[in-house]
Amino acid sequence: MCFSSIFAYLMLVEKGRRACFKRSPCTCCCTMNIPDIRTSTTGDFGIGREELVALTKNDDVGGLEQYGGIQGLECLLKTNLEDGINGEDADVVKRKSFFGANTYPAEKSKSFLTCLWEACHQDISLIIFIVVAVASSVMGLVTKGTRFGYWEEGGNVAVVVMVNIIVKAICKYSQSLIHNVKEEGRNMKVVVRGGKQVEVSICDIVVGDVIPLNIGDQVPAYGILITAQSLSIDTSRVNGDNNIVSFHASSGASRLKPGSEIADGSGTMLVTSVGICTKSELSQDIGNKTTLEEVLNEVATSIGNVGLAAAFIVMMVLLLRWFMYLVLIFGVKTKPRDVIEEVNQIIIIAFNIAVAAVPQGLPLAVTLTIFSATKRMVADNAFVRRPFACVTMAVVKNILCDKTVLTLNEDRCQPGVKEWVQLCQRDGVKVRMVTRDNLQTAKAIGLECGILDSDADATMPNHLFDGREFGELTDDRQRQECAKRIKVMAWCSPDVKLLFVQALKQSGEMVAVTGYVTEDAHALQQADIGLAMDIRGTEVAKESSDIIILDDSFATCVKAFKWGRSVHANIIKFMQLQLTVNVVALTTNFMAAVFYGHVPLNAVQVLWVNLIIVALVPLSLVTKPPADELMLGHLVKPGQPLKRYVKWKRLVFQGMYQIVAILIINFQGRSLLKSYNRGHAIKIIHQVEARKKGILSKPKKWITSNYLFMGIAGTILVSQFIVIEFLGKAFSTVALNQKEWQFSLTLGFAEMLFAIILFVKYLTHRN
């Protein structure tokens, strides 16, 4: 009877407590000695986001006691340690709005219209060209009417430029879709809401949720342990420690971090911080990570400015010449219509010079090259989250690898890892290993993987280093000098790993770092390239990375280096090609305009050449996966000026050849061909240079293994033939006879032969 009475009393108390929670969860605060800490930042709740983040990261019991313990936190968060939040949609929305959602900040997929606007906004010269082209067409219509020949040039330029913008927008839109693929919404988790267990997306977990923990579960957010029954948690995915931590019922104030796995037993936890809040301190502006992008912007800006200056000079010269000859010298009276027509023609000439200078193909070619490479890298188990990361990989000279990336378990390396390490070391990429193991274990793994050459190498000053000592260094210069010599670091915690990365960067090194645990997020973001492991990696680590290694293999990291060097080399080749095209077109048009009063290459023809190069040449450069020999390639060091990227001797010789050829044909074409017309156009074959090494060594094998490249070259020739023979009015060209075709092709192949001679001379000099 006594037992029954006590049991009935306890049931009534529990029923009253639950009723109190359902009516007003915070009313129980009145019966508890909880300090009033509400401020303007706490909103409808008794505690704010900042306080919760600080509480979550503070493991001492005193930090929780100032809020009245876990029971006080229960009231402040308007939840119930057994029944959870009430589960109403309005309450969930309010908690997401105030405390944040359990997702990590990432760029949203852009709409096509947004990409279209960015394509226009980032290259304002395109809009200027369209405006000038339309204005020119309107002036032609006003002075000459609707007859074909007076308005179509400006209209054609506008169409070609708009096609350029649309293609660029399509590339940006495709990248936006690919690089924002998320899998978070597919992960489901059981939570307690309104006294019932319900299954929700991991993204819908909110602060105040009560989550049951069972064997095999992964902790989805930061929180505090409520109950524990023989509970053991594996924290290796949080901090890299291979520790199984045991919890008991008395350890209810223990903090839990996302990524921890339940190894045994069961329990419940109270969610105190979710994704966007816990990662807020990592969401810093890491800026532009690649020097090549700066170089490309410098190229476009510099040559564009030169073109605009040249166009202004030509316009002033032609206006002054026309005014002096017709008005001052001859005293010719002109009608307003004639003045408008002459000014319109001069503007068109200046416009053609400006168009010839702007490297329209460069930004789009870079986008196409990177877009194609990133898609192909997925097949090699490397998912690129930030497009320019694959370019930055080309100039990275250090890679900090976790032991787990190099090994299969504690004492055994991944198959072939020693050969991959030696490939990197031979080609200037220093592989450095960090591990939380002791010095002897770290030394053994370093020797087996080839990072340490021998026992004697391990005894060299600072080659094998204790991470605890490194963390205690206070002099920045000493730490930097020490970091540059370290090959293997033992007892390396995530905090020391971050110091290691920072020291190398401060000493002028570019660094890639691998990571998979939650606490690696800082190092992944601080490094020039962050490589997160997909299989073992936590969401925090992946979201902080530039590239995700899908198979957790060191071999894939090396493949990412090769892809980076391949993309970098291809972009440099295209930049060289684009510079040659623009220098030749600008110089030719400038000289012809000043001395002859017309331009041999009009805007439509120049934009057509750019469009052909943009659309097809980048594809021909990425038809094959990168070879090991790319690791031997000479790359420009970060921070070097543009002049170090450009092969000036080749540009000068090839540019002079093309300029002289075009000017001779332009001024002496009638005597050379008897039937020369200004509309004749010469198309020089450029893209063969990109693969001439393979042509010289094994021509038959090269042709049979490069069908796509041969198809692209054929497409260019066929399209050029169609333009010249059938689209003369639109492109201001005339059809060529057999003799003229032979002459044009001879000039083109002669220049190719000239380029091959230069290349053979370069190989001889290098060997």
Explained architecture:
This is Calcium-transporting ATPase 8, plasma membrane-type-like isoform X4. One of its GO terms (cellular component) is endomembrane system. Residues 599-755 form the Cation-transporting P-type ATPase C-terminal domain. Its main location: membrane. GO terms for molecular function: ATP binding; ATP hydrolysis activity; metal ion binding; P-type calcium transporter activity. With 767 residues, the chain is α/β, with parallel strands linked by helices. It has four domains: 23-102 and 185-278, Calcium-transporting ATPase, cytoplasmic transduction domain A, CATH 2.70.150; 107-182; 291-381 and 561-640, Up-down Bundle (Calcium-transporting ATPase, transmembrane domain), CATH 1.20.1110; 382-560, HAD superfamily/HAD-like (Rossmann fold). The protein is 56% helix and 10% strand. It has an eight-stranded mixed sheet, sandwiched between helices. The relative contact order is 0.08.
The named CATH superfamily of the largest domain: HAD superfamily/HAD-like
- How far is it from the N-terminal to the C-terminal residue, by CA? 102 Å
The first-level CATH class name of the largest domain: Alpha Beta
Strand order, sheet with most strands: 8-15-14-13-9-10-12-11
Helix content: 55-70%
Residue fraction in strands = 5-15%
| Rounded radius of gyration (Å) | 34 Å
Proper CATH architecture of the largest domain = 3-Layer(aba) Sandwich
**How many structural domains?**
4
Give the CATH topology of the largest domain.
Answer: Rossmann fold
**Low-pLDDT segments, ≥5 res:** 1-40, 181-186, 277-289, 675-697
Question: Could you say which overall geometry the principal axes of the C-alpha atoms support?
Answer: elongated
Oligomer: single chain
Number of helices: 31
Structure class: alpha/beta
Number of strands: 15
Mean pLDDT: 76
Largest sheet: 8 strands, mixed
